[in-house]
Design a protein that fits this description.
Distance between the termini: 60 Å
Strand order of the largest sheet: 2-1-3
Strand content: 5-15%
CATH architecture of the largest domain: Orthogonal Bundle
Structural class: mainly alpha
Radius of gyration: 32 Å
Number of domains: 2
CATH class of the largest domain: Mainly Alpha
CATH superfamily of the largest domain: MetI-like
Number of strands: 3
């Protein structure tokens, strides 16, 4: 073969190599672009979701109030003058709250117009006055300026969620009511204030009175029961399987079933809780105790798997060193292995608790979907949880419930983000690189 032929062959080989490299580089660039596009698309959808939730829910953190000059008439509140708290509690506070409202509009004389005028205020305004008098009976006989809660339709109007230019038949608030609100607003008697009731009240049929206080308390008691049961049981099971259990078919079956349980739909655990804890053991429905037991069953696989991974991350040299100086197997695990694996176990437990906090399907099966007005005081009281409260409000037709649904989702997401952030901080703070 001549030099020219050898040189030509080398040139062809170089051209083939360069062409192959160009194709490989182009394929790599396309793969990177597809991956980056997937990330951007995912972030875009998440951003749209968050923007939609926040835009609908931020206004629920303020509530419209109307200022009235209320005369706490003794003849209405305490006609006997004995300061009997039962008599004071039964007084007609609606009469007290309606009188100053009529005083602002003396031209309203017909019964129909009066009924429409009274709907400017929430039905909870009278209970607000009742609570004030019950807490401070010295108000009887005095005249005080009081900010009372407005009706949810008035609240939506003030917040700009009602189209004033639309036909009266297309909205739930009449032109006359809008004129009354505008007249009160011109006098400086209409104001939006921070909605403390949203965080302290229980559920209600009236949107302006509904709050997440009962659901948050129910979630708290449910998670406490879940944590007290799932963490020690999960950690103990992980320690036994990883450190003490013999390697045989029985332990292999147990490990396979633990991994399978982590993928079981959550509603199956709800059916199990309904059959066992309520129907068989007779525990109360809608109670955080039963909810905690059901969520314990659901989170145990997650905690066991995370705890076993944390135990595996401890180097064998730690165990060998402890055993070499005369420590027993139990002492090695409790004094050396477990403290080093505890940060990973805590991280897995927090992630499991965050998963439990966001669950609603298993709790629907055990009756925690009930309408609960009173805030639960313990794990045996009827209650609901935050995800179920969101589910209940999302089914309500009122526009005011739409913003409260979104606001409750914002609170739930804040809890979930906080718990996941805590898990990341713990992992970075205590993890060791061997």
């Amino acid at each position: 073969m001549t030099n020219e032929e050898i040189q030509a062959k080398k040139t062809r080989v170089n051209e083939q190599v360069q062409s192959s490299l160009k194709k490989r580089y182009a394929a790599e660039a396309r793969f990177k672009a597809i991956g980056l596009g997937a990330i951007v698309l995912g972030l875009l959808f998440v951003s749209i979701l968050f923007i939609d939730i926040v835009s609908k829910g931020y206004s629920a953190f303020v509530q419209t109030h109307v200022q009235l000059e209320v005369h706490f008439d003794p003849a209405v509140i305490d006609p006997s003058g004995n300061r009997d708290m039962q008599e004071i509690a039964r007084a007609d506070y609606r009469k007290l709250v309606r009188a100053p409202l009529r005083a602002h509009f003396p031209e309203v004389t017909s019964r129909r117009d009066k009924r429409q005028l009274y709907t400017l205020l929430s039905s909870g305004a009278s209970y607000q006055l009742q609570q004030m008098v019950m807490e401070n009976p010295e108000l009887i006989g005095k005249t005080e300026k009081v900010w009372v809660i407005a009706d949810d339709e008035i609240d939506m109007l003030v917040k700009g969620h009602v189209d004033r230019d639309s036909l009266s038949a297309d909205r739930r608030i009449s032109d006359q009511m809008i004129a009354w609100v505008d007249a009160l607003d011109e006098k400086g008697l209409v104001e939006t204030q921070f909605n403390t009731g949203f965080f302290s009240n229980g559920d209600s049929r009236e949107p302006e009175l509904a709050g997440i206080g009962g659901a948050v308390s129910g979630s708290f008691f449910t998670l406490v029961v879940t944590l007290l049961l799932s963490f020690p049981i999960g950690v103990a099971a992980a320690i036994y399987l990883e450190e003490f259990a013999p390697q045989n078919k029985l332990t292999d079956i147990i490990e396979v079933n633990i991994n399978n349980l982590a993928a079981v739909p959550s509603i199956v655990f709800g059916l199990l809780g309904l059959a066992m804890f309520i129907n068989f053991f007779g525990l109360p429905r809608s109670a955080p105790l039963v909810g905690g037991l059901v969520l314990t069953l659901m989170t145990l696989p997650t905690i066991i798997i995370a705890s076993r991974a944390a135990l595996k991350s401890v180097p064998p040299s730690i165990r060998e060193a402890a055993l070499g100086v005369g420590a027993s197997k139990m002492q090695t695990v409790t004094h050396h292995v477990l403290p080093l694996a505890m940060p990973g176990m805590l991280t897995g437990s927090i992630i499991g608790m965050a998963q439990a906090l966001g669950e609603s399907a298993p709790l629907l099966m055990i009756g925690m979907v009930a309408f609960i007005v009173d805030i639960p005081q313990g794990p045996f009281d009827p209650s609901t949880v935050l995800p179920v409260q969101v589910y209940l409000w999302a089914d309500s037709p009122e526009r005011a419930f739409v913003e409260r649904t979104s606001a409750a989702i914002m609170v739930l997401l804040a809890f979930l983000i906080t718990m996941n952030t805590l898990a990341v901080v713990l992992r970075r703070r205590f993890e060791r690189r061997w």
